[in-house]
Write a structure and sequence with these properties.
- Helix 1 runs parallel beside helix 2 and helix 5 packs antiparallel against helix 10.
- The chain folds into 2 domains: about 180 residues, Rossmann fold; about 180 residues, Rossmann fold.
- The protein is α/β, with parallel strands linked by helices.
- It has 11 helices and 19 strands.
- Strand 14 and strand 15 form a beta hairpin.
Length: about 400
């Protein structure tokens, strides 16, 4: 019988858990035994008793968990603990690990996993395909991040979002400008519209226009930046010419200056985030305006962003939040657990592991196997997977 281990996440500020009682019950119904580290789900709203009632066994610590687990499901990559122990060293040879591995920022992790003989799958490398849609954890976390980013902006802004007609006069709605209309950007649009804001969104991908307009926002783009040649086969935006970049910046500058809130979501796989908002643009923004930079983890789309810090510059508040999905741990865990469940079902047959590397999803996500690298790691998107908007 396959034994699956669910550890308590050790990353500071990480409140999510890889499996919730609902999905644990489904894993057990599929013939697996599930062991959960004590307290693993508490920060996401799930007590140990709920896992026991789902059929899982609670184990006291990480060492006990990893000693018997054949398949380990995590949210974040194994890391070096304050005790000096690296979590990768707890994994037994032949163990299968499925997690966000963030390989572009953790190159040494691959060496450890290879040395331990671990087969590792990176959830950030799930293909953007119809078949893999149920496993697309980046999109799930992007949905959460876009929602929470809008609330952060509303909280930091010194005015309300909706139009109000009161005895004291009419209050005009806030104007929100979204850079990048991918999963996170579309959620920013939807949430801002629910709050009553007037929303505009920029994206160079032609397919984004219909999605933006369907949510009641105005699509912003120069005509020569929105033909099909600017999107690659995976739907990501491609690099622009110098002349196109200049026109893009001028267009962005105009709309940034007229907005109360700007939310940026632009990342390029495996690279530093493009700088789309310069200090000169910030200087031209309204006093009291807010920027929420969802690309802060990869450097930021705003020139003045400081990852993990709130900055005040030229009368503008610039937020650089990190790991926003973890701040909504209940639903983020629920969504991620379902993504993982769908992925695990690809590799488990009749209660045993069946790693078929001819499966395009398993092949694309595998990072290490049989004591070696499983090909050169593909470029990895940041935690939030918006539409890519090059600088």
């Amino acid at each position: 019988m396959l034994t699956i281990g669910i550890p308590r996440e050790s990353m500071p500020g990480e409140l999510r858990v890889a499996q919730v009682p609902e999905t644990v019950a489904r894993l057990i119904a599929g013939g697996a035994a599930v062991r959960v580290e004590a307290g693993a789900g508490e920060r996401a709203g799930h007590r140990d008793l709920a896992y026991i009632q789902a059929g899982a066994t609670i184990v006291p610590d990480a060492a006990a968990l990893h000693a018997r687990a054949q398949l380990v499901l995590r949210v974040r990559e194994p890391r070096l603990l304050e005790s000096g122990t690296h979590e990768a060293d707890l994994l037994e040879s032949g163990t299968v690990l499925v997690s966000f591995l963030n390989l572009h920022t953790n190159p040494d992790l691959l060496d450890r996993l290879v040395a331990r003989g671990v087969t590792a799958f990176a959830m950030e490398r799930i293909p953007r395909s119809t078949r893999a849609q149920r496993m697309d954890a980046l999109s799930s976390m992007g949905t959460i991040a876009g929602y929470k980013a809008t609330l952060l902006a509303a909280n930091a802004l010194g005015r309300i979002f909706p139009l109000l007609m009161t005895a004291a006069g009419t209050i005009a709605p806030a104007r929100v400008f979204v850079l990048g209309a991918g999963v996170a950007g579309l959620q920013v649009i939807a949430t801002s519209r629910r709050l009553g804001a007037v929303v505009e969104a920029f994206d160079v991908r032609p397919a984004a226009r219909e999605e933006v307009q369907s949510l009641g926002a105005t699509f912003v783009a120069a005509d020569d930046l929105t033909d099909a040649s600017h999107a690659d086969a995976g739907g990501y935006a491609k690099a622009l010419t110098h002349e196109q970049e200049e026109r893009e910046r001028a267009l962005i500058h105009k709309h940034v200056a007229g907005s109360d809130v700007v939310v940026t979501t632009a990342n390029i796989p495996g690279r530093k985030a493009p700088v789309l908002i310069t200090e000169a643009m910030v200087r031209d923004m309204k006093q009291g305006s807010v920027i929420v930079d969802l690309a802060a983890e990869t450097g930021g789309n705003c020139e003045l962003t400081r990852p993990g810090t709130d900055v005040s510059a030229h009368g503008v508040t610039i937020l650089g939040p990190l790991n926003l999905a973890a701040t909504v741990p209940v639903h983020a865990s629920q969504m991620y657990a379902r993504n993982l469940l769908a992925f695990v079902q690809l590799m488990v047959k009749d209660g045993t592991l069946n790693l078929n590397f001819e499966d395009d999803i398993l092949a694309a996500t595998c990072a290490t196997h049989d004591g070696r690298l499983a090909g050169v790691p593909a470029p990895v998107p940041a935690p939030d997977p918006p539409a890519q908007v090059p600088a």
